[in-house]
Specification:
Layout (H helix, E strand, L loop, with lengths): L8 H13 L2 H8 L3 H15 L4 E4 L2 E4 L1 H25 L5 E8 L8 H10 L3 E8 L1 H9 L5 E7 L6 E11 L11 E4 L8 H10 L4 E5 L4 H9 L5 E4 L9 E2 L10 E8 L5 H14 L1
Parallel strand pairs: 3-4, 3-5, 7-8
Antiparallel strand pairs: 1-2, 5-11, 6-9, 6-10, 6-11
Helix pairs in contact: 1-2, 1-3, 1-4, 2-3, 5-9
Protein name: LysR family transcriptional regulator
Family: Belongs to the LysR transcriptional regulatory family.
Pfam families: HTH_1, LysR_substrate
Length: 283
């Protein structure tokens, strides 16, 4: 029988921090180590498993296929280790939950959920990861978030459906409706509304151009308020001072979108309870 080797949890923890922060330098700051020390620990871990887990590029670090597969397993190992230590010592530790929330839902919309959860789970540290639904689902698949909300066309949803919301046009200028190409703005280049909007405009023989994208909800809405562009928005999230455009505008009617919840099958108790808090909010 071959002798099993013992995994160094320090190396595992370093790998997870590098994966979460996306760079050696950021991980070094968080762990109070030198960049060289971080790199050496990653090399030792890769040597232990005889595979490459991370690659460095000008944008930081990227997980390899083996690294992506290993990340959720590494998280579970650290969770079990931390739980065992707390159980054996009787200490009260701080649990953590990483939840993905689409940009347009992360502010006032998600605040009541976060407040309710924080009130009933004061020992849990919650990290909100914002992004487009497409980016958040990629993070979820890589194990970078424990659970995530997703917006998608109601006809295409495959997750746990929480709510159905019509997608509507927002504009403060009637003059824009006649402009061709139609000026549009989106929160991000990976906005989940883009594909649907472009397809419907094409079917209606309406040309368009994208005038603004910068991953800022506030700036996107300011662009609309300034009369520079239109944007598609979920009706329940339309802020005060803005109103949807009706069918009399001549623009195609937009479809309903679903808000879905995805929870990792290996989620911690804190993440499962966050999922339940989100469900309760939508009920």
């Amino acid at each position: 029988m071959s002798r099993l080797r013992t995994i160094d949890l320090t190396l595992i923890r370093t790998f997870v921090v590098v994966a979460d922060t996306g760079s050696i330098s950021a991980a070094a700051r968080q762990l109070h180590l030198t960049q060289g020390g971080i790199s050496q620990q990653i090399k030792r871990l890769e040597s232990f498993f005889n595979c490459t887990l991370l690659v460095r590029d000008p944008g930081g670090t990227q997980l390899t296929e083996r690294g992506t597969d290993f990340l959720p397993k590494a998280r579970r190992l650290l969770d079990h280790s931390d739980s065992l230590y707390l159980d054996m010592t009787g200490m009260v530790g701080t649990r953590s939950v990483r939840v993905g929330v689409p940009y347009d839902m992360a502010g006032a919309h998600f605040a009541p959920i976060l407040k309710s959860y924080a009130h009933s789970h004061p020992d849990v540290e919650v990290t909100i990861v914002t992004g487009s639904s497409i980016d958040l689902m990629n993070d979820f698949a890589k194990g970078l978030v424990d659970l995530t909300l997703r917006q998608c066309p109601a006809s295409e949803g495959v997750g746990e459906r929480l709510y159905i919301d019509p997608l509507v046009w927002l504009s403060t200028s009637d003059e824009l409706l006649c402009q061709r190409p139609l000026p549009l703005c989106f929160v991000t280049p990976t906005c989940t509304f883009r594909k649907t909007v472009f397809a419907l405009l094409m079917e209606s023989h309406i040309s368009w151009r994208v005038v603004f994208e910068n991953a800022s909800v506030d700036t996107t809405l300011s662009t609309v308020r300034s009369g520079l562009a239109l944007t598609p928005w979920l009706r329940s999230l339309v802020p005060d001072g803005l109103e949807e455009i009706g069918v009399e505008s001549g623009l195609p009617m937009l479809p309903e979108f679903a808000i879905e919840l995805y929870v990792s099958p290996n989620a911690s108790r804190g993440a499962l309870e966050m999922g339940e808090a989100i469900r309760q909010h939508y009920r």
